[in-house]
Amino acid sequence: MAYIVTHKGEERNIRVEECHPGLYKVLLDGREFLVDYYEPQDNLLSLIIDGKSFEVDIDSSDNGELFGVDIQGDHFVLEVVEEKKKKLAKKLSAGVTGRQEIKSPMAGNVLKVLAREGDAVESGQVLLILEAMKMMNEIKAPMAGVVGSVNAKEGVPVTTNELLCVVEPVVESAVPS
Questions:
Q1: How far apart are CA 19 and CA 122, in angstroms?
Q2: Is residue 89 a part of any domain in this protein?
Q3: Which pLDDT tens digit goes with each residue over 19-43?
C-alpha cells in the first residue's frame, strides 16, 4: 500500500509491503526499512525498525486520516492518506460534471451510510464510511447534486470498484419569461 503522510505541511511518500505476518518492508522517501510490528493493545504499537525498538502510542481522529502519535516522549500530528485516494481527491477538485457513480476505492465493510436516495448533497460531503484494515475511510460526494441511488448497506462488505451510490447533477429547470 502507498500512503502520503503529512506533518506540519510537509508531505512524505511511504510504501508498506507485508513480507510475513507482523513483518513489513517500508519504503520512506526512497529509503527501505524492515519493520517488525506488534500491537499488544489497541492504539499501542511495539515496533522494531532495523533492529531498534520503539513503543508508539496512537490516537486517531473521527475522520480516520489524522493521528496523534507519541514516540519516546515526542508528539506528532500526522495526516495519513492512501496515495490513490489523495490523487483522486486532487483530480476531483478540478471539477466533475454529469452523473457520478461512486465506487469503492478498496475492499472493506460499510460502517455507516450517511446519505439516502433523494438527499441533496454538497461537494465533499461524506456519503458513507468504509472500514478497511482498521482504518475509517470517508467516501465523499465529488460534486453538489442529489443522491440518485444507494447500493451500500451498513454492515455489508464491499469489493474494490463495487458501486456504492450515485450522485446526479442538479438540473436547473428553465422558466419561460
A1: 42
A2: no
A3: 999 999 999 988 999 999 999 998 8
